[in-house]
């Protein structure tokens, strides 16, 4: 089933019904690509939209209570996944020479409604808002809301390159300049890209997107599985 879904996405066919959590777990055994990696590598903006919209809004709740941390985690895990080469979808997009696709991915980090229409850049076309890529720290974006975006921009692959450096390597200088400009708006003094700054961002992102809770859940499941296994042992 997993292989069939990967083949469908490679062919830019998205007429399949898979819940978001299953999408997160669908990883190519050879490349460790996610389905989002595959869609981005194919340059399919429709494919990216189709996959990301399956997660709905990150504000989904259980009944009328607070937003469910599990839904927040699964969506971020999907877009932040690194493959065997350490590439995020931004590394892949940076090599693909499609700036609009890069803009789309960036806006999806923030679940911004304009992600599906990356051609809209002027505030007049964005209901008076600045496009997410034009937000500036700390004036129009605080540390908490901008950390996930900056973290993905500066994530390095196994070759030691972030997405902007990856774009430069293949001659996509417009994309490289765009990525660098966005990162500099979110970190004008460079402090957030220092060793301590990165450590603080990692902690903030893990807490904000429920990674700590998910790690605890995984440990509990492991302990329960071990307990169940031991209960079946015959002495």
UniProtKB/TrEMBL annotation:
Database matches in InterPro entries: Ankyrin_rpt-contain_sf
Name of the molecule in the record: Ankyrin repeat protein
């Amino acid at each position: 089933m997993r292989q069939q879904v990967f083949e469908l996405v490679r062919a830019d066919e998205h007429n399949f019904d898979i819940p978001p959590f299953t999408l997160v777990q669908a990883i190519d055994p050879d490349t460790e690509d996610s389905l989002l990696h595959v869609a981005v590598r194919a340059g399919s903006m429709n494919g990216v939209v189709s996959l990301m919209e399956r997660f709905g809004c990150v504000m989904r709740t259980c009944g009328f209570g607070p937003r469910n941390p599990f839904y927040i985690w699964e969506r971020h895990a999907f877009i932040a996944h690194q493959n065997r080469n350490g590439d995020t979808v931004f590394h892949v997009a940076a090599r693909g020479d499609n700036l609009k696709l890069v803009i789309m991915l960036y806006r999806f980090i923030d679940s911004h409604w304009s992600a599906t229409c990356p051609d809209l850049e002027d505030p007049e076309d964005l209901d008076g808002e600045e496009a997410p890529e034009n937000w500036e720290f700390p004036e129009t974006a605080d540390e908490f809301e901008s950390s996930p975006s900056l973290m993905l921009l500066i994530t390095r692959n196994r070759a030691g390159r972030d997405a902007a450096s990856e774009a430069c390597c293949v001659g996509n200088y417009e994309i490289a300049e765009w990525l660098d400009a966005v990162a500099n708006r979110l970190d004008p003094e460079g402090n957030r890209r220092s060793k301590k700054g990165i450590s603080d961002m990692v902690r903030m992102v893990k807490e904000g997107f429920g990674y700590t809770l998910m790690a605890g859940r995984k440990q509990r499941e492991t302990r329960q599985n071990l307990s169940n296994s031991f209960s079946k042992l015959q002495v």
